[in-house]
Write a structure and sequence with these properties.
With about 190 residues, this protein is of the alpha/beta class. It has a single domain, classed as Rossmann fold, CATH 3.40.50.720. About 45% of the residues lie in helices and about 10% in strands. The protein is built from five helices and four strands. It has helices spanning about 30-55, 80-100, 115-130, 135-145, 155-165, and strands spanning about 10, 60-65, 105-110, 175-180.
Length: about 190
Amino acid sequence: ERLGGIDILAHVIGGSASPAGGFAALTDDHWLAELNLNLLATVRLDRLSIPQMLERGKGTVVHITSIQSVLPLPESTTGYAAAKAALRTYSKAISKELGPKGVRVNSVSPGWIMTDATGDFLDMLRTANGGTIEDARQSVLDALGGISIGRGAEPDEVADLIAYLASDRAAAIHGAEFVIDGGTIRTV
């Protein structure tokens, strides 16, 4: 209110607490949790924030999806991947609706990002499987089919992309998805 409303909305929440074991291991509660966190939280925040942008006739929205929307890991992330695929489609749909009204909408699809949670996950893998942190890191790289640059992206690299998309320098970029995965997805 003090600053005149919301100009930029970057929705970055996401994650998964569902168990491994493929689709049969997922209960309705797991599915609902994945959809609530990875899709519906974004929809709810948009419904709260975008009307302010529409009143002013300008604004920028960036949704964070995931490369798993096109490259799911069926053993462990089916619900998460499906929810992020739905978010990807939702982002495209509202870009068509909001663009003519002055609100730009884009999405960013990260691959493996080297966050604190990633470090915790690698430590958990190391503990469960034995070996070193490097062994755990390599097992993730193998599960992803490799990453061309040999590493996950740093959080600041993703943040820089989001900041660019939110800036006036990207004024003609709308309804697009940007993949930042170090070359994990090997197809066009």
